[in-house]
Amino acid sequence: MNAVVSEVGAALSGIAPHVLVGVILVLALAGLIKGTLGFGLPLVAISLLSNVVEIHLALALVTLPIVLSNLWLGLQGGDFPGTLRKYWMVVLAVGVGIFAGSRVLVGIDKNLLMFLLGTVIIVFALAEQFKSGAGLVIPPHAERGWGIAAGLVAGLMGGLSTAYGPPLIMYLTALRLPKEVYIGTLGVIWFFASIFLVAAFSSVKILTPYTAVLSGLSVFPVFVGMALGKRLRARIDQHLFQRLTLIALVILALNLLRRGLWG
Q1: Which of 176, 179, 192, 259 is disulfide-compatible with 91, CB 3.0–4.6 A?
Q2: Span 197-247, pLDDT tens digits
Q3: pTM (global) more than 0.90
Q4: Rounded to whole angstroms, how far apart are CA atoms 41 and 35?
Q5: CB-side exposure of 89: number of CA atoms within 13 Å?
Q6: How far is residue 19 from each of residues 16, 23, 121, 216, measured CA to CA in Å?
Q7: By the 8 A CB rule, do 166 and 186 touch?
């Protein structure tokens, strides 16, 4: 362990101060968006961090902040056990997808990955923006089937990029949950998904003792941002909340498409 800490110290001392400050600010911004909207931590962090650090390191840095931030959100929902009982099959489907996706991650072209992720996000965001009537609404009798499908796709995306959010956001948005129930449900599902993510990334050597320490340090700026985001969310009504969610998705998607096309 001492050797790992020494390696981390040496690595941090070798990073240019402006790069280190930039990484901290990106993590805090990602936490702010997560605390406000309930999602966006890996999407923001990966799309921005990958401009300054290697993509696999960026994935590792956000892993532990994802776990703890999702637990924090899930506990805010007020009924953690009840939510888990209702959505346990979605959680299981996400786990299966994550382990499958992580096996592909080690060999996939990162630009292709970013382009595909950006395309999925922007298609959903634009469909929601220009929908007619009530848009896609999932009836109660179809919730389980749609949930399993969304969980599998989300898991595959998560195993490839840590960004398992968009399919689950689409699913829960189609359920038309109230704002705070929506946030709590995302937190519960994503917490267990992130546990699968840690196990999967450890198995393919993306998360190592060295990168785990760096990931642990990343928790602090993320949680500062999340605390500010929670206060901001309390001032946002349901309509504005949904609109900000879509705007954030489009911005993130455009940045990912840019990275996928031009590196």
Answers
A1: 192
A2: 888 888 878 788 888 888 899 999 999 999 998 888 888 876 787 677 778
A3: no
A4: 9
A5: 9
A6: 5, 6, 28, 18
A7: no
